[in-house]
Amino acid sequence: MPASEPCCPPRLLDRDQAAQYLAVSTDTLDRLIHTGVISVVRLPVERSRKTGRGVAGAMRRVLVDRAELDELIPSWRERSTPEGQR
Fold first, then answer.
1. pLDDT at residue 79 in the model
2. Which residue pairs, CB below 8 angstroms and at least 24 apart, start in 66-75?
3. Could you tell me if 28 and 19 are in contact, meaning their C-beta atoms sit under 8 angstroms apart?
4. Is residue 41 a contact partner of residue 13, using CB atoms and an 8 Å limit?
5. The pTM is what?
6. How far apart are CA 58 and CA 9, in angstroms?
7. Nearest partner of 45 among 36, 53, 34, judged by Cα
8. Could you give the C-alpha distances from 19 to 44, 61, 85, in angstroms and in order?
């Protein structure tokens, strides 16, 4: 395996990657997050004591769990009904 290829696909996706994964715009992804359809993963981070920004907090970057998206997609499937059988 070439060194430039990752060993496995990332579990956590940023906004752009998650939107691309779902084939939707980042605005649509933001609405899905805002309405609670998709949850956000916040990684805890230790901040440097030297900068004076505190010692604990959460990453502000929006991350989405790819596994959650994989679980949601089947529930969004929609089958068309043959004409006249509605």
1. 82
2. 66/9, 66/10, 66/11, 66/12, 66/13, 66/18, 66/21, 67/11, 68/38, 68/39, 69/13, 69/18, 69/21, 69/22, 69/38, 72/37, 72/38, 73/22
3. yes
4. no
5. 0.71
6. 24
7. 53
8. 23, 15, 34
What value, to the nearest 5°, has the Cα angle with vertex 65 and ends 55 and 15?
80
- The answer to whether the beta carbons of residues 57 and 45 sit under 8 Å apart is yes
Name the burial class of residue 48, with classes exposed (0-12), middle (13-18) and buried (19+) by CB atoms within 10 angstroms of its CB.
Answer: exposed
pLDDT in tens, 4-60: 666 888 999 999 999 999 999 999 999 999 999 999 998 887 766 666 565 666 667
